[in-house]
Amino acid sequence: MKERVKSLMLVALVVCSLIQSYFLIYRLPGNERVVRTESDYVQTEIMGAQAKVEEVIFPQDIIVHLGDSKHTLFYPNTNFYKLILSRLQGRQFDGFQRYTATNLNWNTIREQNEGIELRFGRGVPVGVLQKVMQISNDSIFEDESINRILIYNVKNEDKVRVFFFSSQAGVIYEATNADLTVQDVHQQINFGKAWTPYRLVNGMYYIPEKNIDALDLVVQTGTYTSDQMQRSLSFDPSITRYIQERNGSEIYTDIKRSLQFRQHQNWISYTDPSRRAGSISLNKDALSAVDFVNQYGGWNGTYRMEVTEESDQQSRVLFQQYYDWLPILDLPGFRYGTMRLDMRQGAPTSYERSLIYTKDEKSEKRIRVLPGGEVLNRQIADKAKGQEVSALYPAYQPIYSEKGLRLKPVWVILLGSGERIVL
């Protein structure tokens, strides 16, 4: 009799345990329902195109220094930009020496000498830059990130100097054995002599002396669904839970990871905080970020990579989207134009991107004039209100409506404080 009672009690305990487990897993407070699909397995969905690392590494612009305080700028996907870049990619750079940047007056060098300057935004790791340029392996700066390369003919001398600027302020590297002659540089300088003249202002930014033309257009769009993103990011439908937030955002989580949809912005934020901290490898993080986007979501258009070292043993990889030759702005009121990944030990801890993608169809197209010269100078002074201006660049301001995505060319000024102002 006692044995039967013990058996019944054991069975009852097991049943109670199973019931409690069910409610803990599937009925936590605040969770409305368990997300399930007809499939019992994780189905990965590839939505965008695949890209090679080489396709996302290119300068944000190329400055041609003509000497005598004359300059011009070439932007991505323009003929002279591609011609100059292709020629430099065929040259060898080695024999690196490290210097302190303050030893030379860079503004004087840019104003007085003929030269070419490639700017890479926040920076690109050397190991990744070697994918598109013939830079020799050198332990002196193999772990560096480069944000610009300056090549110039020394005035009144038969000599070419080549400097790689580190993203760390005040650190530069000279390639003492560059495969370039004075005549090589001079030939490329000639491309800029008949182009729009620019002048250097306060040693900080370049302003065109004339108006420049850009295309103002409307492109047709589509939108990825939440189901597509879940499948793309390999969320297991059998254990994924759904949470509705008060602000209208939706969160899907499989305990370790979460995927937040900001429906009013068509923007997603994916997080995986389980990655352990460790030493940073910018090269590894940059390459892994490209692989991650290839596998989870893909690419819609042309993107340019920038990599920065962040706090908490993380790096940040930003992919800036381009249409034609202009970058597309990512604005607080309308998130678009960038993909961002925070990386730790070669794996993402967060991933953000737009759900909107563009199609090849264009419904409207016209030429828009961006002002230059004194008109632009007055606009900058009016908006900056005495604050330091660190950069000026043309970009597309995205405007989303039922008609599609309007890409409106604008001038953007970047203040020393980091604030962006659209003119």
Automatic annotation (TrEMBL):
CDD domains: YycH_N (cd15787)
InterPro entries noted in UniProt: YycH, YycH/YycI_2
Domain Regulatory protein YycH, residue spans: 3-412
Gene3D superfamilies to which the protein is assigned, alphabetical: YycH protein, domain 2 (3.30.310.160)
Protein name, entry field: Regulatory protein YycH of two-component signal transduction system YycFG
Native organism: Paenibacillus shirakamiensis
